[in-house]
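Your task
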Amino acid sequence: MWIVYALLSAFFAALTSILAKIGIENINSNLATAIRTVIVLIMSWAIVFITGRHNDIVNIGHKNLFFLILSGMATGLSWLCYYKALQIGEASKVIPIDKFSLVIGMVLAFIVLKETITIKMIIGGALITIGTFVLIF
């Protein structure tokens, strides 16, 4: 089932980029990010309440909360930078560079999370890196 969610994530991420490029035309990219963030916030909390998971908030530990806060800050910075790049650059070049986060995420998973490195991952990461450079130059 995780593959279905991952594919849906990829589809919605691609759709997000195209819709964002159209939506930020003639407005400040930071304002656009703020508007998008409010929508994400409303949707996220709506799903939490609809699924009845809002009571679980008391079970969140300090470590979990700390890293969720850091993750939220990283997301915010990513979105601000992404929207600015998307506003001033070509979507067909900004999107591949943004998706290079796949390779960076894999490297961080190896370093920080101590996940196993396989030859398949190295080859895949190298191909994504080469593909990114081919698309942007």
